């Protein structure tokens, strides 16, 4: 029996930590590749599209979507100069620097300014673009005719989180500085809905926003009346790892691209971006905003949404099953009677303490934080490059396991103590009692909770966008960041989530009815009384 106990214990830690050793070649950088990270949702610098038109590049890990834009074209020039293949890795803004430092990418080409704060973490090449700061507001706003910062007195202004744009807001006299937002998609929605009066951006992005939405306008301040910035604040450079010898090579390549060429590439990017070039002016989608039809979005991004939904479902189903197994193993282990052997008893206490720490950590911290720590921490501390999908499966599984362990423990203790005593009275061991008497009833007791966890996992995969897992939410964000049709895009995404959760709930209810069939109690009773 002791062998069975230790087998359960070893199996538990194999399930929890075994997959951390899984590496994937797609997340490692071959010598003939130049892997760059970008959001792929910050037009005209970078965006997502569903074809290779306009020299777009396939996004790493997603053969059905492509990245285009100014950053992509500049990255292609750099890769060609280095005689390497360009690989575009889609990464959320906050994950770019951790991805670079952990070795998951070779460079950041994402419209990033080489500020002093960032230079403390990574190196930068010479700038490959320079722009002016502008403020985007609504045409019907009282601030639409502003010519100076003083004219924005009292305005509710915001900017993107972790950018110098947010810090310059303080230069506006009497400004009502709003909470920084994660990305431009969120800011555009807030602006259109009237939550804010404007946001700080760069000229190319401002041109994009006003081109695709007639309700918006860009405030171009008079000379000397706008934001005061240092040269590095309005410059855009390639982020490289500290001491990377390729930095000088990139600088040599950039020096060979004239200012006229850079301007031409940017002008072409503004013209080519899907949000401003798709459809004719007579079509509803060309007018931007709410006039675009849901059918147009589905036809353009439907494949991406389906792929994202498939990955979401895979992560949710696998993690629910794996988490339930982890919960069962922990639940069984924690109900084992104390051993009379002092050594085994001590090991039991240590194991229980470790399990308790695991449960409290993963129940007491947000999954988004766990994703960042596990995905980037494993790479930094152990030099293990985990595939993003593998990381997602691991993160959600161990998180679910922490919750399920307590649910399973409650389900086991909910079984009447008399059944434990009856089983022992007829000579059944603890293992036999758990396997044949207690667990069948406990699983039935916790089945509604398992269904609830599966629904939660379907929705919680959205937080994995922080490590750029291409789930449904990530694909929806990329689409909305490109077409600026936030209401329509996320309505479609929400409808898909609803279908997934309703389907999961329906399947679990069918299982409950099956287990509630008249034969169930009879079989359990026969199992107990028939043992000799």
TrEMBL record:
| Localization per record | Cell membrane
Molecular functions (GO terms)? transmembrane transporter activity
Database matches in InterPro entries: AA_ABC_transptr_permease_3TM, ArtM/GltK/GlnP/TcyL/YhdX-like, MetI-like, MetI-like_sf, Solute-binding_3/MltF_N
User: Which key words tag this protein in UniProt?
Assistant: Amino-acid transport, Cell membrane, Membrane, Signal, Transmembrane, Transmembrane helix, Transport
Segments crossing the lipid bilayer? 313-336, 371-396, 485-508
Bilayer topology: Multi-pass membrane protein
Q: Which residues form the signal peptide?
A: 1-25
User: A Gene Ontology CC term for this entry?
Assistant: ATP-binding cassette (ABC) transporter complex
What Pfam families has UniProt attached to this entry?
BPD_transp_1 (PF00528), SBP_bac_3 (PF00497)
- Give every ABC transmembrane type-1 domain span: 309-508
GO biological process terms, alphabetically, are: amino acid transport
NCBIfam families on file? HEQRo_perm_3TM
Q: Report the sequence similarity comment from the record.
A: Belongs to the binding-protein-dependent transport system permease family. HisMQ subfamily.
Name by which UniProt lists this protein: Substrate-binding/permease component of an ABC superfamily glutamine transporter
| Species name | Tetragenococcus muriaticus 3MR10-3
């Amino acid at each position: 029996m002791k062998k069975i106990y230790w087998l359960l214990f070893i199996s538990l830690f194999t399930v929890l930590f075994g997959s951390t050793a899984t590496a994937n070649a797609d997340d490692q950088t071959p010598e003939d590749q130049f892997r760059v990270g970008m959001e792929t949702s910050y037009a005209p610098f970078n965006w997502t599209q569903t074809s290779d038109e306009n020299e777009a590049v396939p996004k790493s890990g997603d053969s059905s979507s492509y990245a285009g834009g100014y950053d992509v074209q500049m990255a292609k020039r750099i890769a060609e100069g280095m005689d390497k293949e360009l690989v575009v890795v889609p990464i959320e803004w906050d994950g770019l620097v951790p991805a670079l430092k952990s070795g998951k990418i070779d460079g950041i080409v994402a419209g990033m300014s080489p500020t002093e704060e960032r230079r403390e973490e990574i190196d930068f090449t010479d700038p490959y673009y320079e722009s002016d700061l502008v403020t985007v507001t609504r045409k019907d706003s009282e601030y639409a005719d502003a010519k100076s910062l003083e004219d924005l007195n009292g305005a509710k202004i915001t900017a993107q989180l972790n950018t110098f744009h947010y810090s310059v807001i303080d230069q506006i006299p009497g400004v009502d500085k709003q909470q920084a937002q994660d990305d431009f998609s969120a800011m555009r929605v807030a602006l259109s809905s009237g939550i804010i009066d404007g946001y700080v951006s760069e000229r190319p992005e401002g041109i994009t926003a006003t081109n695709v939405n007639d309700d918006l306008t860009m405030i171009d301040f008079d000379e000397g009346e706008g934001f005061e910035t240092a040269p590095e604040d309005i410059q855009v450079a390639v982020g490289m790892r500290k001491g990377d010898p390729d930095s000088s090579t990139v600088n040599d390549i950039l020096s060979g691209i004239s200012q006229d060429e850079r301007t031409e590439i940017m002008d072409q990017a503004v013209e080519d971006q899907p949000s401003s070039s798709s459809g004719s002016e007579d079509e509803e989608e060309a007018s931007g905003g709410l006039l675009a039809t849901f059918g147009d979005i589905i036809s353009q991004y439907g494949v991406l949404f389906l792929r994202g939904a498939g990955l979401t479902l895979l992560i949710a189903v696998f993690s629910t099953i794996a988490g339930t197994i982890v919960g069962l193993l922990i639940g069984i282990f924690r109900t084992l009677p104390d051993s009379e052997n002092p050594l085994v008893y001590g090991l039991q206490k240590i194991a229980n303490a470790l399990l308790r720490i695991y449960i409290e950590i993963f129940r007491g911290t947000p999954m988004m934080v766990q994703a960042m720590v596990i995905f980037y921490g494993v790479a930094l501390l152990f030099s293990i490059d985990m595939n993003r999908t593998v990381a997602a499966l691991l993160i959600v599984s161990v998180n679910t396991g922490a919750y399920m362990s307590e649910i399973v423990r409650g389900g086991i203790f909910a079984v009447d103590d008399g059944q434990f005593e009856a089983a022992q009275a007829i000579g059944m061991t603890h293992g036999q009692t758990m396997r044949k008497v207690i667990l069948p009833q406990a699983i039935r007791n916790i089945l509604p909770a398992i269904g609830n966890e599966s629904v939660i996992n379907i929705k919680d995969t959205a937080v994995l966008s922080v490590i750029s897992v291409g789930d449904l939410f990530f694909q929806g964000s990329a689409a909305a960041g490109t077409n600026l049709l936030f209401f329509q895009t996320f309505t479609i995404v929400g409808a898909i989530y609803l279908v997934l959760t309703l389907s999961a709930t329906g399947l679990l209810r069918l299982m409950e009815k099956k287990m509630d069939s008249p034969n169930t109690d009879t079989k359990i009773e026969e199992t107990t009384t028939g043992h000799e």
